[in-house]
């Protein structure tokens, strides 16, 4: 099916996110605003104005009431999804590169950049207390070692947080004490994305080392590896079919010097379990920065350096796809 | 050696055992004489003329480029002559050179040097004389060298599935592969740094030639061992004779002699030459040639192959532009008839190829050994441009008799190109002509029908410039590509071209008179960008490609004998264009090379890092243009199919195979199906295992999660249920416009 092209941003996309029901799609871009769209037809619902720098990251809570965004203006903002009002602003010393709600929405984390002499850090934000009292306690801060954190996510039941590092390392931290629990070094370059499975028992990472991998959350044991031929910016796990969608492309810096053909700006579908590539979706004319899959698994969206979001609803064939040998099992 | 023992020291120094040290540091006695040579057959002179003789000796050595003789390095034994009572020399002298290399060189260069009419110098190494004088007088039979069996050099042809091999050169790796259709190629042999520049197959596929600083090495057999090597420093280009008997190598560095490589095959006559002809079986240097033949020694542009071979390896020749064609004979390496064929103005020449049948006949003849039958003569064709009042001319000449068979005069010729059909039945001369104003160009195709009496010539006029011409191998059809695009010839443009197919119309006798067959047009395809023609080696199929363009990478797969339906078959009888069918149009981004496999079943298009940096790699297609496999390989350089020698089957056997093709193919189809299932079985098993592992892991993790949630007092994972989702459909009707019309009745 023809994708829906969302042309609401004037600069490159940084992160897109569906809410839990999947009817809304939130997008953050370098043009300082966060947009919200109806995912089924691509109509724009509204804009969250307030940041004065590129917005790097966005997340929505499970009730679709609160929205959290992180920006290069050194703040993270909490928004009312319905009204677009800014409920709270956290100020940091450096840019906020990643925010994420915990499973029960009581807390959130914010990954801050290593800049201007400040260490990169992961701050734990108490959402509940902020809402109740507007409390201005300094958030608890974890300092990841040895290299700075790029991305992070919560484990299930708020057991721990998982951090993807600049040097390709992944580690598990106790968010209460700031202690490192375990770590592994599976990638050889920057980890660009880290997305949890729906039940948060495993997660997918993408890296500039041209591979995406799957890990068990509790042990950080590697489960699967998907090796491609271009640096990856995002990896997302699909419900329904056992796929993983990865996307990326050569560095944005080199895009103008090479032809579109070589850019490899495609979303690639890999079979999650068999580690085989099964298909590609073309369309962007710049690197793909972020991919998100609808929670019901019937559509997915990609946001690119080209400033567009492409919303794809899967065709019938997609749901019928199965390897001949598994036909009798029933897909 | 006796171990050192502190309790058992020798009493005195005399008792010490120095033997081991002496053995270690013993001065090798003979080595000191390596730079001394013995010169024999020197004129016998008296004491008074001794100095003069020495001076001449020094002069000879100096002019020969051997080097200076050591000061006081000449010694000549004298004896008292009983008759005259004077001291006279004994007719030989000893010379001491500076180095052993110089001595070696002197032996090589000046042995048999004529000093004057009656004195031819005989030079030997001093150590040699010593050695030979100690030889035993009686004859000892040399031990017979054990016969070391060589591997079968054509073992690859016995592959039960008749697959073809190709060599892949990538980065510093050279890999020999089997082509396995839809399966990835099977690696047979792989070696790092196998070659320094590139690789090349011999024309029948027996050897793989690799290039090195020191020369060429040939490899082959099932284990890919080195078979033979040819020393030629700086070798850049090679060319095999058609039957792989001879090898021509060219280096940009002239041969030098004083490099002192032991076992160097070069002699004095080779110095300064750049071209060498080798015997492939024995590795012997047969003859070397200078690179340039023009008298003023301006190094003319290198055209490769420099020597053109007749089909049976019997003759080879080269042209000296503007002057002559030199035809040499093997194995003697001498000029045929002892002189070159002088042809004023000659530009180029070509040997006529022969058909398989003729080759067989020739073989039979040589088996008979009946000398009375006259050997078939070879034919060469050459052309000369307009010189003065003399028109341009194409000539056919037989070799070795050098009789002119046919000539044809041509006018207003800009350039000619000689294209022989692979059986030698036809010669097409593509004549580029300029119009009278000399402003624009057009082309004539002059087709010589060599097999017919008196060799009739047919002329096809083409209005436009012909940029490519190709005969169907063993066939009677050809394809040309023409263009009238003014951008043609400019860099970075893709001119519009037309493709034209021709066939030989063997018209039926009309009114009882045999009409002469003519080449007729099959079809013209306009508005193309195609610039290259690649016929399948078996004919019938042809690929039209746009190569080395910036924007177009089309590959068109054509079938000239397409007979799909009975209807089409009928139509083909009426109209030759009806059986011409475009099978598929494909694209290979940045394609630089196209190679048919020797059987015409598959074709590989490739993009080499020598020309591009982007998307290099190769694609395997079948003859219909269906993509089999595609690989993008970093640092991909070169890919070459291994050629196949001529089939050993006789024509009758081939016919029989063709008749019973259905039976044979049944067997192969079964084999294919079997292979397919065995492969997929493995794959299925592998996938099953992965799935099972995953499912088992999920089960474990999910139960763990459920447990933990229960402990935390939470409900188990809230699986989203479709019942909970409420779909609300909202219909919004908007009235855009409403007009009311009253219709009168």
From TrEMBL, chain A:
Compartments where located: Cytoplasm
Keywords from the UniProt entry: Cytoplasm, Initiation factor, Protein biosynthesis, Repeat, WD repeat
PROSITE patterns for this protein: WD_REPEATS_1, WD_REPEATS_2, WD_REPEATS_REGION
Principal cellular location given in the protein's record: cytoplasm
The keyword Transmembrane helix appears for this protein: no
Cellular component, GO annotation: eukaryotic 43S preinitiation complex; eukaryotic 48S preinitiation complex; eukaryotic translation initiation factor 3 complex, eIF3m
Family as reported in the entry's similarity comment: Belongs to the WD repeat STRAP family.
HAMAP family reported for this sequence: eIF3i
The protein's name in its UniProt record: Eukaryotic translation initiation factor 3 subunit I
Organism the protein comes from: Paraglomus occultum
Gene it is expressed from: TIF34
From TrEMBL, chain B:
Keyword Membrane: no
Entry keyword Cytoplasm: yes
Domain of life: Eukaryota
InterPro entries: EIF3B (IPR011400), eIF3B_RRM (IPR034363), Nucleotide-bd_a/b_plait_sf (IPR012677), RBD_domain_sf (IPR035979), RRM_dom (IPR000504), TIF_beta_prop-like (IPR013979), WD40/YVTN_repeat-like_dom_sf (IPR015943)
One Gene Ontology term, aspect cellular component: eukaryotic translation initiation factor 3 complex
Annotated localization: Cytoplasm
RRM domain location: 35-128
GO MF, one annotated term: RNA binding
Record keywords: Cytoplasm, Initiation factor, Protein biosynthesis, Repeat, RNA-binding, WD repeat
GO biological process assignments: formation of cytoplasmic translation initiation complex
Role, per record: Component of the eukaryotic translation initiation factor 3 (eIF-3) complex, which is involved in protein synthesis and, together with other initiation factors, stimulates binding of mRNA and methionyl-tRNAi to the 40S ribosome.
Record text on subunit structure and interactions: Component of the eukaryotic translation initiation factor 3 (eIF-3) complex.
Family: Belongs to the eIF-3 subunit B family.
Name this polypeptide is given: Eukaryotic translation initiation factor 3 subunit B
The organism of origin for this protein: Paraglomus occultum
Classification of source organism: Eukaryota, Fungi, Fungi incertae sedis, Mucoromycota, Glomeromycotina
């Amino acid at each position: 099916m023809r994708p829906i092209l969302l042309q609401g941003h004037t600069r490159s996309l940084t992160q897109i996110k569906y809410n839990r029901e999947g009817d809304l799609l939130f997008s953050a871009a370098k043009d300082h605003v966060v947009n919200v769209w109806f995912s089924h037809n691509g109509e724009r619902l509204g804009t969250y104005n307030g940041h004065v720098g590129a917005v790097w990251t966005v997340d929505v809570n499970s009730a679709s009431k609160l929205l959290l965004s992180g920006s290069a203006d050194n703040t993270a903002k909490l928004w009312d999804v319905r009204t677009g009002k800014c409920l709270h602003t956290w100020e940091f010393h450096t840019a906020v590169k990643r925010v994420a709600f915990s499973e029960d929405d009581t807390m959130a984390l914010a990954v801050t950049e290593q800049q201007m002499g400040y260490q990169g850090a992961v701050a734990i934000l108490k959402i509940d207390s902020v809402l109740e009292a507007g409390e201005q306690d300094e958030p608890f801060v974890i300092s990841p070692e040895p290299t700075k954190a790029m991305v992070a996510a919560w484990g299930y039941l708020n057991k721990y947080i998982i951090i993807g590092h600049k040097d390709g390392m992944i580690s598990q931290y106790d968010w209460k004490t700031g202690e490192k629990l375990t770590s592994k070094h599976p990638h050889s370059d920057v980890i660009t994305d880290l997305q949890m499975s729906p039940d948060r028992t495993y997660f997918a990472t993408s890296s500039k080392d041209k591979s995406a991998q799957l890990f068990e959350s509790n042990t950080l044991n590697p489960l699967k590896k998907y090796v491609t031929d271009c640096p990856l910016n995002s990896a997302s796990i699909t419900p329904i079919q056992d796929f993983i969608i990865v996307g990326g492309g050569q560095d944005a810096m080199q895009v103008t010097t090479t032809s579109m053909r070589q850019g490899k700006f495609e979303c690639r579908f890999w079979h999650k379990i068999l580690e085989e590539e099964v298909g590609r979706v073309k369309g962007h004319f710049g690197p793909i920065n972020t991919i998100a899959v609808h929670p019901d698994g019937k559509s997915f969206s990609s946001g690119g350096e080209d400033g567009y979001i492409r919303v794809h609803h899967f065709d019938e064939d997609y749901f019928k796809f199965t390897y001949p040998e598994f036909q009798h099992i029933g897909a | 050696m006796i171990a050192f023992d502190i309790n058992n020291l020798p009493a005195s120094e005399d008792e010490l055992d120095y033997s081991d040290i002496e053995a270690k540091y013993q001065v090798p006695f003979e080595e000191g004489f390596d730079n001394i040579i013995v010169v024999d057959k020197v004129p016998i002179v008296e004491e008074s003329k001794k100095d003069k003789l020495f001076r001449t000796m020094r002069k000879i050595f100096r002019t020969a480029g051997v080097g200076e003789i050591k000061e006081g390095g000449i010694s000549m034994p004298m004896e008292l002559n009983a008759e005259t009572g004077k001291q006279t020399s004994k007719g030989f002298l000893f010379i001491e050179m500076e180095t052993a290399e110089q001595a070696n060189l002197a032996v090589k260069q000046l042995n048999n040097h004529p000093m004057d009419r009656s004195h031819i110098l005989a030079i030997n190494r001093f150590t040699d004389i010593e050695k030979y004088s100690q030889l035993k007088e009686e004859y000892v039979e040399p031990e017979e060298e054990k016969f070391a069996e060589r591997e079968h050099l054509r073992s690859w042809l016995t592959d039960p599935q008749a697959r073809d091999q190709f060599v892949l050169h990538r980065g510093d790796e050279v890999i020999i592969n089997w082509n396995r259709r839809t399966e990835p190629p099977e690696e047979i042999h792989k070696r790092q740094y196998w070659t320094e520049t590139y690789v090349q197959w011999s024309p029948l596929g027996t050897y793989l030639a690799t290039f090195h600083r020191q020369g060429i090495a040939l490899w082959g057999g099932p284990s890919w061992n080195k078979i033979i090597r040819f020393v030629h420093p700086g070798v850049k280009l090679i060319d095999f004779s058609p039957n792989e008997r001879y090898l021509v190598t060219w280096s940009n560095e002239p041969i030098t002699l004083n490099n002192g490589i032991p076992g160097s095959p070069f002699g004095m006559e080779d110095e300064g030459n750049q071209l060498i002809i080798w015997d492939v079986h024995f590795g012997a240097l047969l003859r070397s040639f200078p690179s340039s033949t023009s008298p003023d020694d301006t190094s003319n542009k290198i055209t490769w192959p420099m020597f053109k071979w007749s089909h049976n390896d019997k003759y080879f020749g080269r042209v000296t532009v503007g002057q002559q064609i030199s035809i040499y004979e093997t194995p003697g390496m001498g000029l045929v008839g002892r002189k070159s064929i002088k042809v004023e103005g000659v530009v180029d020449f070509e040997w006529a190829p022969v058909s398989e049948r003729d080759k067989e006949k020739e073989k039979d003849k040589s088996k008979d050994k009946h000398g009375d039958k006259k050997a078939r003569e070879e034919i060469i064709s050459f052309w000369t441009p307009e010189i003065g009042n003399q028109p341009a001319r194409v000539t056919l000449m037989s070799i070795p008799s050098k009789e002119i068979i046919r000539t044809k005069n041509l006018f207003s010729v800009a350039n000619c190109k000689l294209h022989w059909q692979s059986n030698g039945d036809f010669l097409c001369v593509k004549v580029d002509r300029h119009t009278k104003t000399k402003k624009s160009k057009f082309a004539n195709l002059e087709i010589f029908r060599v097999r017919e009496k008196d060799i009739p010539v047919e002329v096809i006029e083409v209005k436009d410039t012909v940029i490519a011409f190709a005969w169907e191998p063993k066939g009677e059809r050809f394809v040309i590509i023409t263009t009238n695009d003014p951008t043609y010839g400019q860099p970075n443009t893709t001119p519009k071209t037309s493709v034209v197919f021709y066939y030989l119309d063997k018209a039926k006798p009309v009114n009882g008179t045999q009409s002469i067959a003519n080449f007729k047009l099959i079809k013209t395809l306009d508005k193309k960008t195609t610039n290259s023609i690649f016929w399948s080696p078996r004919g019938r199929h042809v690929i039209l490609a746009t190569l080395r363009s910036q924007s177009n990478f089309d590959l068109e797969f054509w079938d000239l004998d397409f007979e799909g339906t009975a209807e089409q078959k009928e139509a083909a009888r009426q109209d030759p264009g009806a059986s011409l069918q475009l099978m598929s149009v494909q694209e290979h981004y940045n394609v630089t090379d196209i190679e048919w496999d020797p059987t015409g079943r598959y074709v590989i298009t490739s993009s080499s890092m020598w020309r591009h940096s982007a998307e290099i790699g190769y694609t395997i297609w079948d003859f219909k243009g269906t993509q089999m496999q595609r690989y993008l390989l970093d640092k991909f350089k070169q890919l070459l199919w291994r050629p196949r020698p001529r089939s050993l089957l006789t024509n009758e056997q081939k016919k029989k195979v063709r008749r019973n093709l259905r039976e044979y193919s049944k067997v192969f189809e079964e084999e294919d199906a079997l292979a397919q299932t065995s492969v997929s079985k493995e794959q299925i098993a592998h996938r099953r295992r992965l799935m099972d592992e995953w499912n088992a892991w999920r089960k474990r993790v999910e139960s763990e999660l459920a447990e933990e949630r229960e402990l935390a007092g939470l409900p188990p994972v809230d699986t989203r249920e479709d019942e909970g989702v409420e779909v609300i459909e909202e219909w919004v009707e908007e009235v855009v416009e409403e007009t009311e019309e009253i219709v009168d009745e």
